[in-house]
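Input sequence (231 aa), recorded before submission:
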Amino acid sequence: MQLRSFVLVNHSGELEHESPAQQKTPLAQLWKKGHDIPMTFSSPQTTAKLQTRLATTRHIGALKLMINNAYRGETGKKGWTTEADLIGGQRIDEGLLEEILGTNQSYLLIAFETEDSILGCVHLQKLSSSQGDQTKVYLGLLTVNVDHQKRGVGDYLLQESERYAKQKLKAAAIEMTVLSVRKELIAWYVKRGYRVTGEQRPFPYGNERFGRPFKDDLVFEVLIKNLAERF
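Predicted structure, token format:
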């Protein structure tokens, strides 16, 4: 699998905390060597120093556990983003993660404090556009470890996803889908500049790779955010 480069910047747009070796080595070469470029992130909830990198196949096991724990079952009920009362079964499996990592223009970003402690992840997929259309990126799978929620990790991942989409993928907008019944989650995104478009998309009934829904009327709301004025 090809490891894609990801440039980490602070909120003023500058690279942070380069080691002497990193300062002498091109970023693309650092990623090929598997280096992590740390970044400081502060919020009212946390002063932790987070590191961010692109996931590789060696992270699949930990990601599968974290994502399913956050979205499904009794463990998921510890977090406010859970879908446990709406959908049973798994949220993701190893095969789906392998597809994400192996798909062209697909990027799975992880945040962590130590190499063996992943705090969250988010998936970005550059969307195909017809001639004359603005480039859009689909954002999905935004997940925070249930034991590290309410620390600003979700905000951090969202902001860095937007920055990467704008600066590296040259996207004019980010698109996402949220279950229509998740009013509190939709409100969280609206507060951060996303707009409910009014478009709805069907839930993939019959495909248990995405879980077993307890309701027969689930649909996704499409949200979008214009990045033209940011970064």
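Checked by second reader. The two ends are 30 Å apart (CA to CA).
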